[in-house]
Amino acid sequence: MKHLLLKYMARLTSLSEAEQHAILDEIQVEEYRKGTVLLRQGEIPGKCYFVLKGCVRQHAVDETGRDITSNFYTEEQAIAIFNVHKPDKSSDYTLTCLEDSVLVVGQLDTEREMYAKYTQLESMTRRMIEESFGQVQEEFAAFIASSPEERYKTLLLRRPGLIDRVPQHQLASYLGMTPESLSRIKKRLHRERAETEL
């Protein structure tokens, strides 16, 4: 599993092989069962994660009591809650494992020590966050400008494996539609595909 991290270190740093392996020896990798809550809405985050295997859902309950899905993190994606702007530093989201998952766990209180010891690790982390943030900005802009059907088609293109990995009502919430609308869109696209194959 740690070979995924080696890939990032090789791509985003000029650390020697010995330094890379020294970092890997210090990194904490944990296995979590499906259904494990990593962080609850309202708690102060103390950890960040990198998904080696599995799927983690980011969601929140709004003021009307609706549980809204805002992201799914899968292999090779970093999970961090950015809340420094909030006076109480609490999380707006809950993070829940949708599958048995293997995650790299970073302790936020020891992060500075690791960065001081391995200075390139900080720049690697920053570059990973920049890449991720750029992707989120792009996806958000596309989401706002597109119809529910276009959102589903985009998801099929960019993350096709997600569709069979997560419950349909959570997928519908993530796409900003009702489960019934998602079902209708899927049926219509399936029918159109079948007609073009005739």
UniProtKB/TrEMBL annotation:
Gene3D superfamilies: Jelly Rolls, Winged helix-like DNA-binding domain superfamily/Winged helix DNA-binding domain
Stretches assigned to coiled coil: none
GO MF annotation: an example: DNA-binding transcription factor activity
Keyword terms, alphabetized: Activator
Keyword Ligase recorded: no
PROSITE patterns given in the database record: CNMP_BINDING_3
Highest taxon of source: Bacteria
Domain annotation Cyclic nucleotide-binding: ranges: 11-57
InterPro entries: cNMP-bd_dom (IPR000595), cNMP-bd_dom_sf (IPR018490), Env_Response_Regulators (IPR050397), RmlC-like_jellyroll (IPR014710), WH-like_DNA-bd_sf (IPR036388)
Any single GO CC term annotated in Swiss-Prot or TrEMBL for this entry: cytosol
Magnesium in keyword set: no
CDD domains named in the record: CAP_ED
Alphabetized PANTHER family for the sequence: CRP FAMILY TRANSCRIPTIONAL REGULATORY PROTEIN, CYCLIC NUCLEOTIDE-BINDING DOMAIN PROTEIN
Protein known as: Crp/Fnr family transcriptional regulator
Protein species of origin: Paenibacillus apii
Lineage of the species this protein comes from: Bacteria, Bacillati, Bacillota, Bacilli, Bacillales
